[in-house]
Amino acid sequence: MAHVELSLSGAFVPQARTPVESEFVSNIDRWAATVWQAVEPCLVIDNNHTVVAVSPSGSDLLGLGKGAEVVGKSLLGGEGTMHLIDFTAAGGDLTDQEVEKIPPLLALSSERLARGLMRIQPPGDERHVTVDAIATPLVENGRVIASLTFFSAIRY
Questions:
Q1: Close Cβ partners of 147 (under 8 Å, ≥ 6 residues apart)
Q2: Is residue 142 assigned to a domain?
């Protein structure tokens, strides 16, 4: 036979709490602080494709020079930025349509995880590096504000 008990007590009233400092820091700033200290090659770009942060190993791998010098610059299309080339033997420039599909940018536009290979020619260097890139969108208040990308060099 079922048994039911009834208990009466005072109403639970949650206490107001003081917001911690981390609640005032934006999501993009938290990730940028993490990337600056990361051992893995990674970077954060905002919706305008501007570099927000790059790890030291990411800067070396992508041929961006010193990380602090590239912050605030566009990821593509300027001095000291990434120069993407196609996978042909000649290594020609990517079309605008192909550039939109690289993982850091695709994660922004699709608002989803993006992965792919990228072939990069560092500034002032004839060699190229092929990287596997995995990018995820960073969301704040329900909208994508940036992307975080991790890179791994493909050795062959």
A1: 44, 45, 103, 104, 105, 107, 108, 135, 136, 137, 138
A2: yes
- The DSSP secondary structure of 22-65, one letter per residue, reads GGGS-HHHHHHHHHHH-SS-EEEEETTSBEEEE-HHHHHHHT--
What tens digit of pLDDT does each residue of 92-111 get? 888 889 999 999 999 999 99
The pLDDT assigned to 122 comes to 76
- Average pLDDT across the chain, whole number: 86
Which residues in 94-121 are b (16+ Cβ under 10 Å) and which e?
Answer: beeeebeebbbbbbbeeeeebeeebbbb
| CATH number, position 113 | 3.30.450.20
Inside any domain, residue 134: yes
